[in-house]
Amino acid sequence: MASSVETFFRPNIGCVKDLAESSDLISIPSKYSYFNTQNQEDGMDEVVAELVQIPTIDFSILNSTFPDQRSKVIQDIGKACQDWGFFMVINHGVPESLMERMLAMCRDFFDQTEEEKLECAGKHVLAPIRFGTSFNSSVDKVFFWRDFLKVLVHPQFHSPSSPAGFSEISMEYCEKTRQVARELLKAISESLGLEENCIDKTMELESCFQILISNLYPPCPQPDLAMGMPPHSDHGLLTLLIQNQNGGLQLNHNGKWVNVHASPNTFLVNTGDHLEILSNGKYKSVLHRAVVNNKVTRISLAVTHGPCLDKVVAPVAELVDSENNPALYHGMKYKEYLEFQQSNQLNGKSHLDRIRI
After folding, report:
1. What is the mean pLDDT of the chain?
2. What is the pLDDT of residue 1?
3. Which member of 69, 147, 315, 319 has the lowest number of beta carbons within 10 Å of its beta carbon?
4. Helix/strand/coil (H/E/C) assignment for every residue in the chain
5. Which whole number is the average pLDDT over 190-212?
6. Beta strands 256-260 and 47-51: pairing type?
7. How confident is the model at residue 268 (pLDDT cuts 50, 70, 90)?
8. Residue range 80-100: average pLDDT?
9. Which residues on neighbouring strands pair with residue 348, listed in sequence order?
10. What is the pTM of this model?
11. pLDDT tens track for 24-74
12. Which residues are paired to 41 by β-bridges?
């Protein structure tokens, strides 16, 4: 039975959701067998079973009229960036009802027919709207147990035409998350000893490149063999993530994989490659991955915030000293970095390694 599914399923065109819902699916096609291939070689299967508590940041304190409180939360953000590369944000001001509606809209999108979703199957990695499976099915040697929708939402806003209401809700949601990201980056700028608006101005965040990425990870009959998303770091500066309450996110902390779960009405925030670059390595982007299970569907929604596409990103001059703290990265246009990363296989932080000095 399983072999017939493997023969007729077209992963480069179709989607994992349809495969997972096949009534005769009892084992995964070999194309999805991640842990029988490269993972046996890279030793990335060690997981700490317990749930870890990542740092929690109270966003509302950034607007505190008490200087000591604000200074303390800025220090906490800096420490979270340096020690974890992940932190959870509470009291962020984005309505919980809006977050819930946005997740529901993503679920409605994936619940459409394959033909409806394939209308969004943009071919270029920077297509305004792109639906697909795995990461980049044209180059992936092993397919990942994931369907995705990627939408470019700033500086030009795009949206799939269906389901109804997606455009209005996603526009409001992305405006709100963009405001949160820019305020966090002001605090991060200060935590690095820079002026509050240094990152905002240097990276031209008024024209920041913002992408909405929804991921669907259906139940998998052999979760010990498949992978939702492989170990990788994010491009850009900050990613804000929400998810339904079905776990699956793991990050690499001190050389071990640990499980991360967010409370309702919170954002999981992680640092990206370009924050590592501009901070000259002080704040490193963190490896993370998505694992799957055989019981429930996980939906996550990530919004990435990067510099202006045409911006050449290099270490901030104030953080570089030719004698004691030389530049660790070559400058590279953000668009070129993004196109290279999205056009190739995900392999840890290999794309960032290309521009290390």
Report:
1. 88
2. 32
3. 69
4. CHHHHHHHCCCCCCCHHHHHCCCCCCCCCHHHCCCCCCHHHHCCCCEEEEECCCCEEEHHHHHCCCHHHHHHHHHHHHHHHHHCCEEEEECCCCCHHHHHHHHHHHHHHHCCCHHHHHCCECCCCCCCEEEEECCCCCCCCCCCCCEEEEEEEECCCCCCCCCCCHHHHHHHHHHHHHHHHHHHHHHHHHHCCCCCCHHHHHCCHHHCEEEEEEEEECCCCCCCCCCCEEEECCCCCEEEEEECCCCCEEEEECCEEEEECCCCCCEEEEECHHHHHHCCCCCCCCCEEECCCCCCCEEEEEEEEECCCCCEECCCHHHCECCCECCCECCEEHHHHHHHHHHCCCCECHHHHCCEC
5. 96
6. parallel
7. very high
8. 97
9. 232
10. 0.90
11. 788 888 888 887 655 444 444 555 545 678 999 999 999 988 999 999 999
12. none
The domains found in the chain, sorted by start residue, are 38-353 (2.60.120.330)
In this predicted model, what pLDDT tens digit does every residue of 188-199 receive, in sequence order? 999 999 999 999
